[in-house]
């Protein structure tokens, strides 16, 4: 087949593709109309078919404005643009894009847009725009120049994206963070008040040592919550952050306290039981366990596990290098009772092993509703 015949066959193929596309239910005639009205700028051959299909099928609202006409009117708007704004084509073509602005539109963003057009630059702004029915939407508007092969400015291209949901989510997040900061401030005050009451009561009743013991537990609980409040609005926290905050006062230097857990989000309700458990274990290690010895150290590990088909947080406390432990020591004080009660209250389970190298405790907390035995 000759080159001329190949060319004719290609033209017929393009025409068949064009006719098939125009016969489809989703066909938008506005791109073809624009090409017919601007023959000097039209794409040729397969590029024309691609232009029509791309402009008609994209879900991105798109328009072209002619900077050579007075007031730079819109000369093309695709179906997505019409659906986004609610305006029919005959109420869009020939008008400047400012007709979508209203009384609440940020004038500084409009000025930024005008400056980009004046400088033939590319810019993105977020504008509050108004639909035909008066309703508003947040428009992420991308604007940029289009040049011909000679470098001459032909049009300004504009794409619109409705980001109202994104803006709303952003506003909710900012509100949640503000509330978290306020809650953090109030909780710090609350723990300070509780500590003050405990101290005064202890002095009045002559039980200063008992008051100090209670205060240490209150402070541990406060540390567990304090560093995680910014995440409270999501309903989950990064558990490693909370563990480190509780044990920070007991970090006696390099290698004395080691953390081995991975980044893990857990329900916010796990914090109180876990915080008090770690405090009691740390106090015991200081008085009787690994940290009562110069060479003693503690390793804290945590991970998500599956038990009885359910997701749980497993926290392992392992002491090494402390005094030899051959059998369970006699119960001293209320520390172990508090640990057991707090873990059970959270629906969890705790196991202790008095190994030759030191105490090993494994506490598990459910990451779903309910408890396990």
UniProtKB/TrEMBL annotation:
InterPro entries: HATPase_C_sf, PAC, PAS, PAS-assoc_C, PAS-like_dom_sf, Sig_transdc_His_kinase_HWE. Transmembrane segments: none annotated. Keywords: ATP-binding, Chromophore, Flavoprotein, FMN, Kinase, Nucleotide-binding, Phosphoprotein, Photoreceptor protein, Receptor, Sensory transduction, Transferase. Pfam families: HWE_HK, PAS_9. The keyword Kinase applies. Residues 74-120 form the PAS domain. PROSITE patterns: PAC (PS50113), PAS (PS50112). Residues 1-20 have a biased composition (Basic and acidic residues). Its EC number is 2.7.13.3. It catalyses: ATP + protein L-histidine = ADP + protein N-phospho-L-histidine. Residues 118-175 form the PAC domain. Residues 1-43 are annotated as: Disordered. GO terms for molecular function: ATP binding; photoreceptor activity; protein histidine kinase activity. This is histidine kinase. It comes from Aurantiacibacter spongiae.
């Amino acid at each position: 087949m000759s080159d001329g015949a190949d060319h004719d066959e290609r033209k017929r193929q393009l025409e068949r593709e064009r006719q098939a596309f125009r016969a489809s239910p989703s066909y938008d005639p506005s791109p073809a109309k624009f090409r017919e009205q601007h023959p000097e700028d039209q794409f040729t051959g397969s590029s024309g078919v691609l232009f029509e299909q791309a402009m008609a099928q994209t879900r991105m609202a798109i328009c072209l404005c002619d900077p050579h006409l007075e007031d730079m009117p819109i000369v093309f708007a695709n179906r997505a643009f019409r659906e986004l704004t609610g305006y029919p084509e005959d109420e869009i073509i020939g008008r400047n894009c400012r007709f979508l602005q209203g009384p609440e539109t940020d004038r500084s963003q409009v000025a930024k847009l005008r400056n980009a057009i004046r400088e033939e630059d590319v810019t993105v702004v977020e504008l509050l725009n108004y639909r035909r029915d008066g309703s508003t939407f947040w428009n992420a508007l991308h604007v940029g120049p289009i040049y011909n092969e000679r470098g001459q400015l032909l049009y300004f291209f504009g794409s619109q994206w409705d980001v109202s949901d994104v803006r709303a989510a952003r506003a909710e997040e900012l509100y949640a963070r503000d509330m978290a900061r306020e809650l953090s401030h109030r909780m710090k005050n609350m723990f300070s008040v509780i500590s003050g009451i405990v101290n005064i009561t202890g002095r009045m009743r002559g039980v200063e040592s008992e008051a100090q013991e209670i205060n240490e537990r209150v402070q541990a609980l406060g540390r567990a919550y304090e560093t995680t409040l910014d995440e409270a609005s999501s309903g989950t926290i990064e558990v490693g952050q909370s563990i480190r905050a509780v044990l920070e006062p007991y970090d006696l230097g390099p290698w004395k306290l080691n953390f081995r857990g991975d980044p893990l989000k857990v329900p916010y309700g796990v914090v109180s039981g876990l915080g008090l458990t770690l405090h009691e274990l740390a106090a015991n290690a200081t008085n009787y366990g690994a940290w009562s010895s110069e060479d003693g150290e503690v390793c804290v590990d945590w991970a998500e596990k599956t038990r009885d088909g359910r997701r749980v947080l497993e926290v392992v406390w392992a002491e090494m290098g402390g005094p030899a432990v051959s059998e369970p020591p006699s119960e001293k004080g209320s520390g172990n009772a508090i640990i057991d009660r707090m873990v059970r209250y959270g629906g969890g389970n705790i196991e202790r092993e008095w190994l030759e190298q030191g105490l090993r405790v494994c506490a598990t907390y459910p990451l779903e509703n309910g408890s396990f035995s």
